[in-house]
Structures are given as structure tokens and as C-alpha cells.
Design a protein that fits this description.
Blueprint (H helix, E strand, L loop, with lengths): L2 E6 L5 H14 L4 E5 L2 E4 L2 E9 L5 E6 L1 H6 L9 E2 L2 E3 L1 H11 L7 E7 L1 H4 L2 H13 L2 E6 L6 H9 L3 E5 L4 H20 L1
Helix pairs in contact: 1-7, 3-5, 5-6
């Protein structure tokens, strides 16, 4: 069993690390499910975040700056704000919930469990449920995680939290890769 959470400052490489591990697992025919939330930039400026189903590749908006939301045809008057973004709740919840349904034995990967994802009630509930149901867990969590239910779920699953920095990211990558090899590949063969 693998039970790891990666945390660290923005831009330190959490998503890069997780996606490299996901690609490694896929190359070894290990089923991976969950979601990741890459940033979207236009003309060098971050305008929002997508939510992408790791197993199926479906994607939609998680959050976007208000001007872009209006341009995309959304009515922002009743949208929840997180920082300078508005969340696209219906789209994010639908894709997020679908991505968290385990189709077979595999590894739950979420990047990231943070304020935007947790501000969407249905998605938050699905994340908590998925954490409890998963056998193997590899997630990124916001550096200031304070959500009691998420922390409780991680603790009950015995999740080890690794703090990523620019100085240790290569070592942490190797550590996570070795855990995947010893805990998942060893039981698969």
C-alpha cells in the first residue's frame, strides 16, 4: 500500500512530480484515477485552472478570473470566489466526482486538494469519500491544509506527508518512485 501526500510552496514542482509518477505507473500498466488541476495561461498571464480526469482525459474549468468567465458565457453574479478566481462549480464537480470513482484496483491521485477544490461542496464530499475508499493514495495537498475532515481522512489512512522544496525535489521524486516500485509493483507481480 502506498499512502503519500506531497505539500510545498506554489511553483516548487508538486504537479510535475505527481505527473511524472503517474506516467511511470501508466507505463507499468498500473491503473491510476483521480484528477489534477493545471493552470491555464493566456499571453503569459494565469487566467484560471482546469480540472482533468486522469483516467479518462475529460476536462473542464475549475476556476477562472471573472473577465474570462464572462467571456466564456458564465453569469458570475452567483459564483463563489476563491482569491481572484470564480469557481465553475457545476463543471468542476461533475468532472471531479466522475474522476474519483474507482473502476478497478488502482492508485488514487489528486493534484491538488486545496481551497478551490474544497470550496465546491459536492467535490469536497467526493474527495473525502475517495480518500476513505482508496487502497493506494498519492495526493498533493495545499501547504496550509486546515480542513479537519481531509486531515482526519489522511490520518486514518496513515498518509505520510512529504514537504517538497526546490532543494529536495529530486530526492523526494526518487523516494516516491521507490515506494511505488516496492509497494505497488511488487504486489502487482
Amino acid at each position: 500500500m502506498i499512502a503519500l501526500a506531497i505539500t510545498g510552496d506554489p511553483g516548487v514542482g508538486k504537479t510535475t512530480l505527481l505527473m511524472k509518477i503517474v506516467e511511470f505507473m501508466r507505463s507499468r500498466s498500473i491503473y491510476v484515477y483521480g484528477f489534477y488541476c493545471p493552470e491555464v495561461r493566456e499571453i503569459g498571464k494565469r487566467i484560471g485552472f482546469k480540472i482533468v480526469d486522469i483516467a479518462r482525459g475529460t476536462q473542464g474549468w475549475l476556476a477562472v478570473i471573472p473577465e474570462k468567465a464572462i467571456e466564456l458565457g458564465y453569469d458570475i453574479n452567483n459564483m463563489k470566489r476563491v482569491g481572484k478566481y470564480v469557481t465553475i462549480e457545476g463543471e468542476a464537480e461533475r468532472i471531479g466526482r466522475e474522476s474519483l470513482i474507482r473502476q478497478q484496483k488502482g492508485v488514487l491521485v489528486i493534484d491538488e486538494i486545496g481551497p478551490m477544490e474544497l470550496s465546491i461542496a459536492g467535490l469536497r464530499k467526493a474527495i473525502i469519500q475517495a480518500l476513505y475508499e482508496a487502497t493506494d493514495i498519492l495526493v498533493a495537498i495545499h501547504r496550509n491544509m486546515k480542513d479537519f475532515e481531509i486531515i482526519n481522512a489522511l490520518n486514518k489512512k496513515g498518509v505520510q506527508i512529504l514537504t517538497l522544496t526546490k532543494l529536495n525535489r529530486n530526492r523526494i521524486y526518487e523516494e516516491v518512485l521507490n515506494k511505488v516500485k516496492s509497494e505497488i509493483l511488487a504486489t502487482k507481480n
